[in-house]
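Lay summary. Proteins are chains of building blocks that fold into shapes, and those shapes determine what they do. In this project we predict the shape from the chain. Here is one chain we studied, written as its sequence of building blocks.
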Amino acid sequence: MASVNKVILIGSCGQDCEVRFTASGKPVANVSIATSSRKKNPQGEKVEETTWHKLIFFDKLAEIAGQFLTTGTMVYVEGQIKYDIYIDKNGQERNVTNVICQEMKVLKRGQEKNTIPKGAPKDEEIDDNSIPF
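And here is the predicted shape, written in a compact code that computers can read:
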């Protein structure tokens, strides 16, 4: 029987996405997003609980994530959960849970990066008739 490993998250980026390259030149991007839920504590007060998720993007999606995922950006992702074990600087074994993302949609932009090329037209300079759809 086939199995399924799929996760869907909507959350807010905690920092700008970081893009690195493998030895063969393939891009890999990393960012953490926060998801929140509300529940009542034993005293009956509503409290918000935040969970952080580490996301990893590869290839073209990594380039896109690096360009658009900035601090505060609300993003929708689909991917697979991957559990890894590594040894930290102190020789301690650490467990980490990552989401290997295959789909991404930016829902709301956060802080802007300085990625707009010099001389690029500003929004108000774009002629609506030049848009192909």
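What the prediction tells us: The chain has one helix and six strands.
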